[in-house]
Amino acid sequence: MRIPLIAGNWKMNTTVAQAVSLVKTMLPDLDKISNVEKVLCPPFVSLNAIKELITGTSIKLGAQNMYFKDKGAYTGEISPLMLIDVCNFVILGHSERRQYFAENDEIVNKKVQVALESGLLSILCVGESLAENEANRTEEVITRQITEGLAGTKPNGKLVIAYEPIWAIGTGKAATGKQANATIALIRNTIASLWDRGTANTIRILYGGSVTGANIAEFITEPEIDGALVGGASLKADDFVSIVSQTSKIKVTK
Hints:
The chain is of the alpha/beta class. The chain has eleven helices and eight strands. An eight-stranded parallel β-barrel has the order 1-2-3-4-5-6-7-8, surrounded by six helices. Strand 7, helix 10 (216-220) and strand 8 form a beta-alpha-beta unit. The protein is globular, with a radius of gyration of 17 Å.
């Protein structure tokens, strides 16, 4: 059985003091919830402060990005060696990285390979644009992103996939549960063809894109969806706790 995972991507939000305050607010309730893996992904500057707060709890820590070199003259970048002693997870290939920082499938693939080699658990993001969706190119785009993103890799349990349709991120327009489930089934089948069916069946695949406490049940009740990568709602303590709590109750019931 795949353990559900809810990850909060705070993006470029919160100062260190605000991050600490947010975690202190949600920590008691989050730590009580079992059967769900909970991951917080604050900005780089807050990783150490949050690590101190959650040490000894059931909450995990993730980074929002990394470079594909261990060290060197890459001003402003963060390497996997800098992250491995601080956090457990790293988000790679987020659509905002692809859109604003020109990350293509080749760059994302390099990052995935290095992250897997270093022992970091990668959350590989894939998703189509509104134009691609309306042109019925979702299958083509997602298959390409998975195939090229995992090129040169071997079956690995240290991988999580997040399907985030770009047209749903931060727009308040989420996909329906059935839409997301169908695309995630496609992702699982693509991984099976690249690796093997057994590994594909164990990999957790999340939905992301305007997920809130009000709509999480629609997604988490679907059989292929193993959790969510949450953006704006992860900055609201009550909403994020609600998302995790509902996920625990629904998956346990099922």
